[in-house]
Write a structure and sequence with these properties.
heterodimer; A: 275 residues; alpha/beta; 2 domains; 7-stranded mixed sheet; 11 helices; B: 127 residues; Rossmann fold; 19% strand; phosphoprotein (chain B)
Chain lengths: 275, 127
């Protein structure tokens, strides 16, 4: 691949998804796009760049961005946020007016494991939520991932990552070597295509936002913009969960770390904000 | 802290070696047994912290060992994780009600064993 082709493809990915591909990610283009190139009968990445420079290449560009979106996921990934959520949900349930659902956003939900882990956590609280309805919104850039998440069907390998076997038995139905999330859990989640670069206000307000291991792919100005948007739609007593390697330091003063917790952030009180 | 111990029970030498390599990688001292009777003898000689247990084996199968171990050593110790090609939900429930703490459906890899060992408290959660 020529540097010119790489820069063109990386530019297209940046504009469409916010994901920054540095020059050392050339290998990622090769491995992630192989299947798509074969399917489309395109000889290589230079040929792909050529095709995408031509008019009417919209569908192909969308397909490329989907193929490059990182989809690594497991149930109860990193554990800690879900333990925190377990303590937080009863407090939120007690603080909300009667009839108002608790709304939770799984941003960049990939194949849905995070959203279903949230649903399992909420169902597990049972009476502690005093019958409070929990509404989960899973969004992702990739239509293919949303379709997978909506079906809630996972391989034997996937259901063994992070998911205690008691929960597997309780919340999944077996179909041969595949496992489908039970209908009552699937009914708790609605799935929607959404690009984190777009204005999220259309999604409504949330009590809790999971936005983990996504920002690492963005450049600093994009991170700042996304974090500010998350802060604007999370409830004053709600939280935003970020990935373990992510921070708000130097990016926004609208979210502050919850004292004593890792990866848990809350909206800054106006008085605490500087500038 | 003293080194944690694990007994790998499987009639396949290849599986035992693969499991041993993974579990030693987590810092455990590993012993092996090729059937349930050998496993029971090994437990009587010295009770391990954890047992990774195949289901289908000659002489004494895994579920028979599991019931015998629970009757003899109590419900919590050692932690027993099934590791078998038996992947029917009915089998999983049978093993759990016989006192297994976790269940691995083969094939497995280091990530799955680490997750399951963490869930049963044999490994600490990595921060």
């Amino acid at each position: 691949m020529t540097p010119d082709s790489f820069n063109f493809l990386a530019g297209l990915v940046k504009v469409r998804s916010g994901i920054v591909l540095t020059a050392d990610k050339g290998y990622m283009l090769e491995t992630r796009l192989g299947t798509m190139l074969r399917r489309e009968g395109i000889a290589g990445l230079d040929a792909l760049a050529l095709r995408l420079r031509a008019p009417r290449s919209e569908a192909l560009a969308a397909e490329m961005v989907e193929a490059l979106t990182t989809n690594e996921s497991s149930f109860f990934r990193d554990g800690k946020p879900f333990e925190h959520l377990k303590k937080l949900l009863p407090k939120l349930a007690a603080a909300r007016p009667p009839g108002q659902a608790i709304r939770i956003w799984s941003a960049a939900c990939s194949s849905g494991q995070e959203a279903y882990s949230i649903a399992i956590t909420a169902v597990g609280l049972g009476a502690a939520l005093a019958g409070r309805r929990v509404e989960i919104v899973g969004t992702d850039l990739s239509q293919e991932m949303l379709q997978r998440a909506r079906e809630g069907v996972y391989t034997q390998f996937e259901v063994q990552r992070g998911l205690p076997v008691q929960m597997l038995v309780k919340h999944f139905r077996q179909e041969g070597t595949r496992w489908q999330v039970a209908p009552e859990l699937r009914a708790m989640v609605c799935w929607q295509a959404f690009n984190l670069l777009d204005d999220p206000r259309g999604l409504g307000r949330f009590d809790v936002v999971f936005c983990r291991n996504v920002l690492i792919y963005f450049d600093a100005p994009t991170k700042s913009r996304v974090l500010a948007a998350l802060a604007s739609l999370v409830a004053a007593d709600g939280v935003v969960y970020l990935g373990g390697a992510e921070t708000v330091l130097g990016l926004t003063d609208r979210l502050v770390p919850t004292p004593g917790e890792r990866g848990v952030y809350e909206a800054a009180r106006p008085a605490a904000r500087t500038g | 802290m003293t080194q944690r111990t694990c007994l790998v029970v499987d009639d396949s030498l290849v599986v035992r070696k693969a499991a041993r390599r993974i579990i030693e990688g987590f810092g455990f001292a590993v012993r092996e047994a090729k059937d349930g009777q050998e496993a029971l003898d090994a437990c009587r000689a010295q009770l391990p912290d954890g047992v990774l247990l195949d289901w289908n084996m000659p002489v004494m199968d895994g579920i028979t060992f599991l019931r015998a171990a629970r009757a003899e050593f109590g419900p919590d110790h050692p932690r027993i994780v099934l590791c078998t090609t038996e992947a029917e939900i009915a089998r999983i429930i049978e093993a759990l009600s016989a006192g297994a703490q976790e269940y691995v459906m083969k094939p497995f890899d280091a990530d799955i064993i680490r997750d399951k060992f963490t869930q049963v408290g044999l490994l600490e959660e990595v921060a």
